[in-house]
Amino acid sequence: MPVCPPIFPTTSADENRYLADMISSFHPGRATYTEFAGMGHGLDLWPSQRAWLEGIHKKLPTQFDTEFLERVEKWMTQNVAGFKASG
To answer: Which domain holds residue 45?
Structure first.
């Protein structure tokens, strides 16, 4: 499950969708693209891309994005059985 926060400045949503599609072309159903609004690269929450960029340089603490764990757990529950079956 490629995960890239939409505010991470070095990749775009289109690049990450392309990556998920490419992985799925070799391993059908094994990759999906998921966006987490406001999530920084450290799986933390930021109000904007600018705040993230300034905050990482200043080493500012911020809240962990718990939605990330919830959505990963749901994805794993939906997909792990299929991975085991397909070998």
So the answer is: 13-86
